[in-house]
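Exercise 7. Predict the joint structure of the components listed below.
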Amino acid sequence: MIQFRNVNKSYGKKIILNNLTLDIKAGEFVILIGPSGCGKTTTLKTINRLIEPDSGEIYIDGKDITKVDPVKLRRTIGYVIQQIGLFPNMTVEQNIAIVPKLLNYKKEEIDEIVRHLLELVNMPYEENAKKYPSELSGGQQQRIGVLRALAASPPIVLMDEPFGALDPVTRDSLQEEIKKIQKKLGKTIVFVTHDMDEAIRLGDTIVFMNEGKVLQMASPEEMLQNPADPIIKSFLGKHINNENSNANLVASDFMRAKVLTVSKTKKTLECIELMSRRDVSSLIVVEEDDTYLGTVSVDKIKAQGKAGRQIAELITVEAMTVNRNSNAQQAFELLIASPTGYVIVLNDDNTVAGLITKTSMAKAMGEALWGEMTQ
Amino acid sequence: MTNLLYLTGEHMVLVLIAIAISTVLGVLLGIISYWVPYLDKVILWVVDSLQTIPSLALLALLMIFFGLGNVTLIVGLVLYSLLPIVRNTYIGLTGVPPYLKDAARGMGMSKLQLMFKVELPLSFPLIFSGIKIATVTALSIAVIGVLIGSGGLGYPIYRGIQTLNFLTITLWTIPVVIMAVIFDFLMSKIEEKLVKRAK
Ligand SMILES: Nc1ncnc2c1ncn2[C@@H]1O[C@H](COP(=O)(O)OP(=O)(O)OP(=O)(O)O)[C@@H](O)[C@H]1O
Ligand SMILES: [Mg+2]
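Solution:
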């Protein structure tokens, strides 16, 4: 567990970390994300004391890290950087073995570790161990960069935009691998990125930073649903756009526009006849100025109607109505709750715009997904 | 003939001793300039100034302290060779990409481990190229050692000059040139390999 307590860091007048307080749980994959220069790298580097805060405390497993020798501390924390940082004068094997060697592991033990780790990323020992970094592809290099950080089994691994410089395909597979490794080995990973896709894909928790502060700390789902700040919203970019396009959908997008309405002055007989001709079981009744009044069902007319009477007296208002501009979700909810199986959509002037039924809803959804439907 | 081989050998040994000392001292000074803020300017200025002193004047000056003989020549050659080695060491060390230093420190290397496992190995091609320049220069400068009574190929050449015997001068200059060319060639080859490996 890593705890930041009121951590401050400035360069000159420029405040980089502004009273940062943050709790990272053990075994979690935590993403630090935010605009460039917001202090992500600085935050990460304060954890392994590559940067010392001006004030505030950082605890790892309850222990104040300033009480630990920084060199010893760093050997227990894996570190992966965007530039990969493999040492060009060392082979793959030597690179992976650095921290175990610093910790005076036995040679056989180190061999075992190197073999095992290379296996983990499907890079056979025989083929790769003796190569120099320059003989590997970028993706392979960063795999070794990750393995190097894992070699001495540190419980915590810090990763600063480790996949930022890789092509999308390689990035994808590395993301998958690191997530698998993290789950398998139960590491606490603090991962800096400014790619929201990556954050959502990998993170158990996303910490959104801005100007040296935490703006929001939440699970990916929670952040998508309730971004706490417009900056976060803009970062969510296309994810939120999807949401937006859903949120932008309104009731009228789901309605059938051609609906049968009758004036309240119509006679009962006429209505029965109309209904049987159109094969419907109820009608929408409107005022003379076309504003909505209610509905009348065939059963009601049969039970109570007297021939020659106006339907005005048989109107019921049990049908649900919704303004045509209300959000689609609201219309959905009404539809599901509606005893009549439909929702009447009204224009702003209370005239009838259309009808949402389960069929019209399905049709509109289909169109949203696959384009114009033939039926 | 034995005289030629003997003097050539002596010449080379004097230079190599000087270069060995200069390398150790130069790399050390390079590391110190790199480690200690502000000292870099001082050290680089000093070794730079040393080279601007005419070689003869430097040797004469050293003679006051070390007397006549090989020791004075070696000290002179050491001082003369410092500049390329110190400078290249310094440039090499400062040129190691910061992210590699970060990675090394982040993995828990101490300052010394960082120096010997990462910074020096990565700077080595450049340091070596400094040593090469120093060696080739020292081979020719060693000739004037004769004026302070040291051995090597300087003596026969000096005698040739005094007797205006161009044949002698040429004859004895050839081994100096050949040595310089061979050292330059071989060391350039090694340098190329080093640079290539560092890529
Ligand atoms: N040594 C330094 N001296 C002065 N300013 C610095 C120093 N290191 C970092 N900064 C500044 O601190 C700010 C935060 O830097 P940091 O590297 O933490 O940002 P970041 O969130 O990682 O950004 P990015 O997404 O660009 O990597 C930046 O504005 C940077 O210019
Ligand atoms: Mg950064």
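Discussion. Chain B has a mean pLDDT of 93.
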